[in-house]
Amino acid sequence: SIHSSFPVGPLGVFYAGARELSVVDRASSILRVPRTVAQAFLGLGLNQVVHRLALRRVADWVQESPIPAWEKWDVSHLGKGDFEGALDALCSISETGTKQEGGHALQDDLTQAWRGNTREPAGYYYDFDTTKVRFYGNTLPYAEMGHASDRSIRTVVGFGLVTSRVHHHPVQCRPIVGSRSDMISVDETVARMEAAGVKGVTLVMDRGMVSAENLKAVRKAGYHQVGMVRDGTEGWWEGLGKWSEEALERPEHLVVRPSGERLYARVDGVDAGAEPAPPDAGGGPRGEGEREVGEGPEATGAPGEPGEVEV
Predict the structure, then answer these.
(1) Are 206 and 259 in contact (CB under 8 A)?
(2) What 3-state class would DSSP assign to 265?
(3) Which positions ≥6 away from 120 have C-beta within 8 Å?
(4) Using CA atoms in the order 279, 285, 286, 289, what is the torsion angle rounded to 10 degrees?
(5) Where is the composition biased (Low complexity) (predicted)?
(6) What is the pLDDT of residue 59?
(7) How far is CA 143 from the centre of its chain?
(8) What is the 3-state secondary structure (H, E, C) of 183-224?
(9) Which residues contact 223 (CB under 8 A, 6 or more apart)?
(10) What is the pLDDT confidence band of residue 235, given thresholds at 50, 70 and 90?
């Protein structure tokens, strides 16, 4: 007779991916932790993509799942503390106040692993965005008053996430102090990507991250940027009329949005000495690589949404 059942479809798919990337072996080696701690890290990741159960419930879920059999993992005494230990191995602050972030090295290694097998071009687009999550605990160095996802002012923790544009492979995820605005998170993200050896990609960001200073930082690192800027400057109108439709509507200037819509973009006035941006990559304000656009399902050369121009 059957006394219980457990759905394994999505779980089996994600577990197979973790096995292919040797997540447990890499975590154990790079974080310098026992295999059981690395397996707890795997359990956290699988829970996040399948269920997102609260931490106090993850142990029961793992015990009920086929994960222990797949991993040959003794979970008879598994508890919440085991998963907290796995989280501490990723990011923690020592008793002396030193910040320890072993997760960065693990992220870099896993990125190199999937990059070695992906069909995405090496210099393709990466999405970068931040989010703020409400914090209900008592103490956390990253928890400060800031804007929550519903625009209210709450105690929040920020997260910055960089993923590949097509298959959404994770490239970088890091905590951000809750009070920090999106605008000042760009230079830290660029520095981390440089340190990880990421080269020649185009970063796609929302309008809250576009500024002259950020564009300079992105271009100095050898990256390109696509973002949105608001209407209101003479340069905006001048940019829209820089080229004729015939000069703009060429295949080499085509950029495809995630929605499937297409636009044409060109670069004007890139800094002297900087590597020229490819036709589909952004630069900075006028004099630093302004982008001009046409947009639409058939890319008519007309401006985009009212009051906006792609940068």
Answers:
(1) no
(2) strand
(3) 164, 165, 166, 167, 169
(4) -30
(5) 296-311
(6) 96
(7) 20
(8) HHHHHHHHHHHHHCCCCCCEEECCHHHCCHHHHHHHHHCCCE
(9) 190, 193, 200, 201, 202, 203
(10) low
Exposure class string for 220-235: b at 16+ Cβ within 10 A, else e? ebebbbbbbbeeeeee
Q: What is the pTM of this model?
A: 0.67
User: Residue 44 to residues 40, 66, 289: CA-CA distances in angstroms?
Assistant: 6, 15, 43
By the 10 Å C-beta count (0-12 exposed, 13-18 middle, 19+ buried), 219 is classed as buried
* Closest by CA position to 195, among listed 270, 101, 278: 101
* Confidence at 279, pLDDT banded by 50, 70, 90: very low
Q: What is the pLDDT of residue 281?
A: 39
The residues spanned by each domain of the chain are 9-99, 124-219, 228-310
Side-chain-facing half-sphere of 116: CA atoms under 13 Å: 8
Q: What's residue 257's pLDDT? A: 66
pLDDT at 306 exceeding the cut of 60: no
Chain centre to alpha carbon of residue 154: 23
Predicted local distance difference test score (pLDDT) of residue 282? 40
CATH architecture of 124-219: 2-Layer Sandwich (3.30)
The residue behind tokens 């302004």 is 290
In the predicted model, is pLDDT for residue 213 greater than 80? yes
Helix (H, G, I), strand (E, B) or coil at 27: helix
User: What per-residue confidence (pLDDT) applies to 273?
Assistant: 40
User: Under a CB-based contact definition with an 8 Å cutoff, are residues 245 and 219 in contact?
Assistant: no
Phi first, then psi: what are they for 42, rounded to 5°? Answer: -60, -45
Rounded Cα gap, residues 244 and 299, in angstroms: 13
Q: Which among 168, 101, 106 is positioned nearest to 141, based on CA atoms?
A: 101
Higher local confidence (pLDDT), 113 or 231: 113
